[in-house]
């Protein structure tokens, strides 16, 4: 890399976790993106791109929650799909010490290119690795293990109580991706992890698949 012998540098993950001799063996080395920086908190000069390589499960696109939503006892299935998306925000804000803010916006103008449903919250945020994990169908947030940057680390499933801000309201449990593709054609996740200066963005679309 052309680094002089007297220059200090660090190697970090995209979550700005410094790679050391102690944690290097825990890294998943297949396709992982690393930063070579002068310091852990160095500002990136420009945006970086990372292609997520995985085989999407055909159910994500072919079924997309259709069975569950259309079998919703003759009720309008759209609220159930929105409940799946809001459930992610409930998980993300469950550990907030202050106000929990969750907004649902229906955008009918051309600001997003096409009409869109936006769910916005002030939760803990996700790292690029956690966004990567979210993209993989049938990889539950409660079963992801063996990764030093696993998704929803520290999240504890709440006790089974009536559906509220303190419960999992996911009605069918078919997941956010099926809900997204039941409602529309693509998903854009924008997230800033708590305590981080970096913003991570994930785009999934049926066209890409």
TrEMBL record:
Domain of life: Eukaryota
Lineage: Eukaryota, Metazoa, Chordata, Craniata, Vertebrata
GO term, biological process aspect, one: double-strand break repair
Pfam families: HATPase_c_3
InterPro entries cross-referenced by the UniProt entry: HATPase_C_sf (IPR036890), SMCHD1 (IPR038892)
SUPFAM superfamilies: ATPase domain of HSP90 chaperone/DNA topoisomerase II/histidine kinase
Protein name: SMHD1 protein
């Amino acid at each position: 890399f052309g680094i002089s012998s007297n220059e200090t540098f660090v190697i970090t993950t995209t979550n700005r976790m410094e790679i050391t001799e102690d944690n290097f063996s825990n890294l998943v080395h297949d396709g992982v993106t690393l930063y070579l920086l002068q310091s852990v908190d160095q500002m990136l000069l420009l945006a970086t791109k990372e292609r997520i390589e995985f085989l999407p499960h055909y159910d994500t696109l072919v079924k997309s929650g259709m069975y569950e939503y259309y079998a919703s006892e003759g009720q309008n299935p759209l609220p159930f799909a929105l409940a799946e998306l809001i459930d992610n925000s409930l998980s993300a804000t469950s550990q907030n010490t202050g106000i929990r803010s969750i907004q649902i916006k229906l955008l009918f103008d051309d600001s997003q290119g096409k009409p869109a449903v936006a769910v916005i919250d002030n939760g803990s945020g996700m790292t690029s690795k956690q966004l990567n994990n979210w993209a993989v169908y049938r990889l539950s947030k409660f079963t992801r293990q063996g990764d030093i940057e696993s998704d929803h680390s520290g999240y504890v499933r709440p006790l089974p109580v009536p559906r509220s801000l303190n419960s999992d309201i996911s009605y069918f449990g078919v997941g956010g991706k099926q809900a997204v593709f039941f409602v529309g054609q693509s998903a854009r996740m924008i997230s800033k992890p708590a305590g981080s200066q970096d913003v991570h963005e994930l785009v999934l679309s049926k066209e890409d698949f």
